[in-house]
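Researcher: Next sequence.
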Amino acid sequence: MQQQHAWEFFRAGGVDQVVIRTGQDIAHIGELDQKLWVALACPTRGIEFDSDTLDLIDEDKDGRIRPPELIAACQWAVARVRDPQVLADGGDVLQLSSLERDSEQGALLHAEAERMLALSGQAGGAALSLAQVRERLASLAAMRFNGDGIVSPATAGDDKALAALVERIGKAYGTAAGADGVAGIARKQAESFYADLRSLRDWHAGAEALGCGIAERDQALAAARAVDAVQAKVDDFFARTRLAAFDTRAQDPLNPSIEGYAALGREVLDSGAQAIAALPLAAVAADRALPLAQGVNPAWAGALQALREQAVQPVLGEDLQEITAAQWEQVKAALQPCRQWLAARPATPLDALSQQEVQALLDGGQEAALLDLIAQDESEKEHSLQAVALEKLIRLQRDLLALLNNFVSFSSFYRREGAAFQAGTLYLDARSCDLTVEVSDTAAHAALAGRAKTCLAYCELRREGKKKAIVAAFTAGDVDFLFVGRNGVFYDRAGNDWDATIVKLIENPTSIGQAFFLPYKKFLRMVEEQVAKRASAKEEGVTASLGTQAGQLVTAPGTAAANATAATAATAAASRKTDVGTVAALGVALGSISAVLVGIFGKFIDLGPWIPVALVGLIAAISGPSMMIAWLKLRQRSLGPILDASGWAINGRMRINLPLGRSLSQTAKVPVGARRTAGDPYAEGNGLRNTLVALAVVALLALMAWRLHWVDGLLPAGWQYGAAPAAVPAVPESAPAPAPAAAAQ
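Model: Next structure:
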């Protein structure tokens, strides 16, 4: 039994991913279970990878790379080198000694590499670079015969007749772009052209023995064409006359109605209008003959005249003004062989050629010259194919390992080396976001990417008149100041800077700590919004009142002043009238609120040593649901939907946990070792606020100390909280009454 390849795996993103680092890993990639592949498809555009390399791997040219194509590329490259380790070592310089030469394909590839070195003046060289291969392909494409099998008018050189023939074939049968980008024709078009010429020649030759009832062949063909042009309408006319003869009641319905003519009368007409051409050739009556000159449908007058002159008169031998149904059948029968021959005409792009033109092209002797021209170009085809194969091999040597580590596994992403799907870095809101993906349709992408449970900001990028779009994942820090319209700067993988503007935002938590403060932030935001709304409404009312009074002062100063005085007096009276009630109502409200607050505070203080537990419970009741939702979403945060929406086919869940998220979105930090000035000359004063907070804390501690008996040992016994009051001495009942005061005496 053949020993299986020993794979190595690492764990990242919640998925076991294969380690690909050696040539043997590349050689055995087809043996790896595709259920273990991270991706099963990726686009050839919109990712940070050499598109020319991807195009060489994309065999079906559908703009996507799938496992069979990637495996085929690995097997193709491994089969053309002695040791697959060179594919893992990388580089864009191919050592000729690394080429496999035992097979026919390997020998041809090695011979072409030596030929390229010799043409570049490095005969006997040991290595061939990608730049040399590209230069050779460019020079080959510029040659007269470049091996692409396509010849253009320029390929014909000084032979103007041959160049005109190439141009004529290209117009009739289409052209293809050659390796040099110039349109031309291939062997297929040339052979189709001459095959169609021969079929037309044979078709013309079949007209010699037609027996059309007309001696002159051209007249017979003209007669057949005239009959074909009107046969359907003439047959329709005689069918109507027979039906009218069968039943006279059918005559009126078979002719156009008054209403139909009335509808035509409301239109702008000409003799060839489609509505007129749809009418019968002539008025229908029982067994009526078809008029050929007078009383005919104007849309068909020319065709009927041609029928009379070119078919009826030559076949029937007299110039008739009308024909019967029997005469019509006689004309059709006489011209039937010609009509059959016309129907058998080959359907080719050369229909317009006459017999003389067809014969002249066949007898011109240019067929052999054209095919020889194509053959000379095709003789270079093998060199062209081998040159393209060398380019593919060098590109795979340079890029194959990197592609596997961005497709079969995402080791480049988890090693933070820059994955193929990462478009660059976005700087916005005092942080940098490395997980950015290029998108083509923001709305369509967001519909699927929202399942990633990640905070996503879709940005429009602009640079030097160019525009594109990306989506950036914010996976760390708060999102309080992320909103549509905010601007930043984006650096692509080439280092170019773009203006970035948020155009769409999908909000999701970035951490549990952020979710802890979220309810309080929402409450404060609601309070601010309500206060602002009330203040705005009050301001609008005051402004409107001032505007009204100002208008009255301008229009009628005396009356306005009197009205203003009266209004002021009324307002003062009303205020005096309502002051007592308002104060009473406010007093009751404040008393009720105070009673409730005192009651709640009292119950809270009565908890004694359980106060900390109550505080924790209160905080948990407020922040707990938000933190639970955030925890659930953070556990589901995934890279897969973001890439799936961009055209990838992600095979695993690819979780973005908190440590990975913190590495993908980094917040601003002062560098280590930097000096910092503590004083802020523009800092807001916090003295009053700090004093109030300190007093509130002291009052709370004093109240708690009193309620919890923390200060009982510091006070006299009679002042202890809860002690019984001192007893008053009782007066004995037998005691004599006190002596009267001296003043009484």
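Model: DSSP finds 26 helices and 19 strands in the chain. Residues 204 and 355 are 6 Å apart (CA to CA).
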